[in-house]
């Protein structure tokens, strides 16, 4: 059962900003704390989204946006140490939130030339204690850095003047959050159910804005990365066969980025989301022999509906994944691929009128994980 569970891990972590609610990229997993003994792992992911839309007549430019999404890579690593007597600890590095937007400047589209980047790095320390029963309690601290920037030429006094775009840059800021969780385990049937709460993390970005309306203007922009709850589960259903899954709720309705000048110009946040998201993953794994195991997953996130941000024109998804693990002595190598059918959506320039339709988009994600037990 152990090898099958590991085969599923790369599939659950090889996620895309184009497929997850808000700017979620990793799901903030702490699964490493349940590894046996002392354990070290490194993970690498590569994601290639393809997201494009067509401007409607209401936008004034009924033309293709071109592919506005950029490919990106992900890196994470973790070390878990067993102290004995029920105590375990882990240190985890991941990149939980991110976005990369680049509307091709050559396209005859109202948002052409718009770019945006958002990045977060997190270092999490987790301590777990297993009670004499089958219950474990765990918690920890997370230190996270966050930065964001954007240039939107269509936010200007005169859309025909390309030399006066709106631009904003938020300097990197670091802040602390926490997590708490509990798990129930039955090793004899490979059962584990774990519930984890991740707190919001409050950032204050030193911000510089320039635009045709004046500037540069310096201010401080509050950005709170959202609280979330993860429910992870697995159980053996037959010899060498495992069913596993994840349900993740994220409080995106409490997240926005509202630089001072942008809010004054448009009356709206630069980035915000209407609703919280709940995403689901269900998978089945099979141990083929002592060396190989395989797994498959299906994922779903319900659309928020309504208009999406011009800097994030996606809404919900369905995903399909395959993975395999090769085990040799103390080393495990897992590779996974995931195809994401991105939900359709519309964007707006205000006034409750559609400005563009984004349809038939997708993403492909590859993940590689190397684990070593000692």
Strand count, sense and barrel status of the largest sheet are: 14 strands, antiparallel, barrel
Order of helices and strands: HEEEEEEEEEEEEEEHEEEEEEEEE
Number of helices: 2
For the residues shown, what is the average pLDDT? Answer: 90
Query: Regions with pLDDT < 50 over 5+ consecutive residues?
Result: 1-6, 13-19
Beta-strand fraction estimate: over 45%
Give the strand line-up of the largest sheet: 1-3-4-6-7-8-9-12-13-16-17-19-20-23
Q: Using only CA atoms, what is the Rg?
A: 22 Å
How many strand segments? Answer: 23
| Structural class label | mainly beta
Kindly state the percentage of residues in helix.
under 10%
Overall geometry = globular
Distance between the termini: 19 Å
Task: Walk me through this protein's architecture.
- With 374 residues, the chain is mainly beta.
- It is 5% helix and 59% strand.
- The chain has helices at residues 2-13, 260-266; strands spanning 39-50, 53-55, 72-84, 87-94, 98-102, 115-130, 135-152, 166-186, 191-198, 201-211, 214-225, 228-238, 241-250, 256-257, 271-272, 277-287, 292-301, 307-308, 317-328, 331-342, 345-348, 354-358, 361-373.
- It has a 14-stranded antiparallel β-barrel. Strands 2-22-21-18 form a 4-stranded mixed sheet, with no helix packed on it. Strands 14-15 form a two-stranded antiparallel ribbon.
- A hairpin with a 2-residue loop joins strand 10 and strand 11.
- The protein is globular.
């Amino acid at each position: 059962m152990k090898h099958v569970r590991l085969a599923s891990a790369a599939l659950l972590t090889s996620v895309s900003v184009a497929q997850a609610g808000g700017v979620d990229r990793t799901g903030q997993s702490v699964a490493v704390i349940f590894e046996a003994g002392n354990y070290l792992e490194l993970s690498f992911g590569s994601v290639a989204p393809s997201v494009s839309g067509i401007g409607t007549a209401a936008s004034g430019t009924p033309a293709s946006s071109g592919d506005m999404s950029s490919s990106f890579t992900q890196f994470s690593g973790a070390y878990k140490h067993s102290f004995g007597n029920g105590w375990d600890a882990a240190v985890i590095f991941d990149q939980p939130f991110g976005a990369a937007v680049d509307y091709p400047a050559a396209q005859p589209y109202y948002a052409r030339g718009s770019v945006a980047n958002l990045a977060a790095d997190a270092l999490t320390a987790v301590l777990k204690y297993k009670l004499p029963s089958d219950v474990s309690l765990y918690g920890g601290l997370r230190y996270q850095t966050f930065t964001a920037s954007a240039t939107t030429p269509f936010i200007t006094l005169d859309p025909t003047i390309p030399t006066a775009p709106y631009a904003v840059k938020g300097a990197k800021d670091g802040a602390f959050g926490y997590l708490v969780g509990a798990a129930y385990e039955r090793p004899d049937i490979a059962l584990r159910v774990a519930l984890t709460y991740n707190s919001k993390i409050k950032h204050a970005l030193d911000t510089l804005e320039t635009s045709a309306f004046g500037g540069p203007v310096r201010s401080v922009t509050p950005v709170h990365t959202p609280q979330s709850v993860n429910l992870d589960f697995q159980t053996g259903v037959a010899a060498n066969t495992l069913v596993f899954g994840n349900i993740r709720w994220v409080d995106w309705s409490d997240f926005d980025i509202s630089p001072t000048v942008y809010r004054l110009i448009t009356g709206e946040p630069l980035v915000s989301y209407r609703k919280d998201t709940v995403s689901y993953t269900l998978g089945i794994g099979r141990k083929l022999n002592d060396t190989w195991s395989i797994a498959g997953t299906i994922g779903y996130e319900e659309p928020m509906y309504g208009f999406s941000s011009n800097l994030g024109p996606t809404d919900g998804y369905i995903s399909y994944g395959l993975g395999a693990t090769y085990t040799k002595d103390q080393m495990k190598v897992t590779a996974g691929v995931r195809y994401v059918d991105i939900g359709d959506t519309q964007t707006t320039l205000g006034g409750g009128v559609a400005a563009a339709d984004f349809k038939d988009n997708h993403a492909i994600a590859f993940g590689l994980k190397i684990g070593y037990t000692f």
